[in-house]
Amino acid sequence: MRAKIQKSMLLLICAAVISSFVMLEIVFYVYSLNQMKKEVKQEVEYIVAAIHISGTSYLDEMDAAAVDTRLTLISEEGEVLYDSQEDEYTFQNHAGRKEIREALESGSGEALRSSETVGKRTYYYAVRLEEGMVLRASKTLDYLIPIVLGALPFMVLTALIMIVLAYFLAKWQTARLIRPINELDLEHPLENSVYEELTPLLQNMESQNKAKEEVADMRKEFSANVSHELKTPLTSISGYAEIMKSGIAKPEDMTRFSEIIYKEASRLIVLIEDIMKLSKLDEQDVDMEREDVDLFDMCREICNRLAFQAEQKDVHLELTGEKVLYNGVRQILDEMIYNVCENAVKYNVDGGRVKIWVGNTLRGPKIIVEDTGIGIPEDQKERIFERFYRVDKSHSKATGGTGLGLSIVKHGAIYHHAEIHVESTLGKGTRMEIRF
Ligand code: ADP
């Protein structure tokens, strides 16, 4: 960046210096040309005055060599009567020349063109004399070139000095511009008071830092929770196994202890499976295969899987709705719907009901799961989607919950750009809607 700014600054200065010198040369040239025109005109005026006094013979008497302006006297018909530098072109008829025509018409005329005689750019100025003749003076622009070019070495030297100066100036200015950027405190982007233009970038950095911190905090909390959740069943497994190993357990307790060990081990397996599902959903970049899934069919199949659990609690499962085709990842959709339906059974009262509706709405497919269970306190309606959050820990554990089910639902919904809406009344029941 530094090199780029420096380079473009230098380039800009060089372009400015060079173009201003070129302009200066042009101005100088135009000025010199005008000056030369003035001189020629003045010279002609003097000679005209002299001719007026002593006639055209003055021209013969004049020391032509002393005057570097070529003088020509032309008759009304265009014939050359006198020429200070006679040559083969002298005897051509001059009536057609622009300056002569103008002089004959209006008293004076001028022209700037390449001379037929010398092939050089020449300035002509002609004046009509009283006798009807025309006196013309001409001067080549050749002598202007050394004048104009004479200033060139000085200009080139000045330009070089200016460019060297510009190089150091650009270097210094770039360093000055870049310094605040180099000194940015990236840990606390908003505490920097640099260029206003950087504010959106710094704000973006700040929110990215915050998001990173949040993710880091969440990871820390998650690992702490995971360790705790793993440790509890493992402590109980190891404790009961130790009692059994030491032989102090009574034979009649053995079945009960083995049952506890089996239950805790199963809980661990479910927990680890849930953690694996969540971490898979966390890798959002991973593209899983999508397919057209019939959500109604899926719900029916889930109801079958939950039938035993529901029967145990005497909960009545009811599925209504219609065939709904949705393009999604089958496994994730299954986990989402299963968890919501399982909760409706788990957190239901004995003899309660669970109503599941699947259908198409104007805004897309929708699944509604309604239960007549214990309900969720209003202030915890959002928190239940946090990892390991349970309203009633002992109830959740008693029903084999891991506290991860609704986190899986939330992440599955994010993956499918779906929304989850919860309505609940404590002691009356809960209604969860998944809107795809
Ligand atoms: P768990 O494994 O504990 O069921 P979830 O993430 O599935 O974990 O749910 C989080 C908490 O939300 C549960 O512990 C429970 O307290 C509450 N909850 C979820 N669904 C319901 C429901 N239908 N009725 C009442 N409470 C619910």
Describe the model.
There is one protein chain. The chain has 436 residues and is α+β, with helices and mostly antiparallel strands. The protein has helices at residues 2-54, 57-61, 98-106, 144-150, 152-182, 199-246, 251-282, 295-312, 330-346, 393-398, 405-415; strands at residues 70-74, 80-83, 108-114, 121-128, 134-140, 291-294, 316-321, 325-328, 353-361, 364-371, 419-425, 429-435. The chain has a five-stranded antiparallel β-sheet with strand order 2-1-5-4-3. It has a five-stranded mixed β-sheet with strand order 7-9-10-12-11, covered by helices on one side. The protein has a two-stranded antiparallel sheet with strand order 6-8. Strand 11 (419-425) and strand 12 form a beta hairpin. Helix 7 packs parallel to helix 11 (405-415), helix 8 runs parallel beside helix 9 and helix 9 packs antiparallel against helix 11. The longest helix has 53 residues, at 2-54. The radius of gyration is 51 Å and the shape is rod-shaped. The chain binds adenosine-5'-diphosphate. The site of adenosine-5'-diphosphate has 23 residues, from helix 9 and helix 11. Adenosine-5'-diphosphate is lined by residues 339, 343-344, 347, 371, 373-376, 384, 389-392, 396, 401-407, 430.
Topology diagram in text:
Layout: H1 2-54, H2 57-61, E1 70-74, E2 80-83, H3 98-106, E3 108-114, E4 121-128, E5 134-140, H4 144-150, H5 152-182, H6 199-246, H7 251-282, E6 291-294, H8 295-312, E7 316-321, E8 325-328, H9 330-346, E9 353-361, E10 364-371, H10 393-398, H11 405-415, E11 419-425, E12 429-435
Parallel strand pairs: 7-9
Antiparallel strand pairs: 1-2, 1-5, 3-4, 4-5, 6-8, 9-10, 10-12, 11-12
Adenosine-5'-diphosphate binds at residues 339, 343-344, 347, 371, 373-376, 384, 389-392, 396, 401-407, 430.
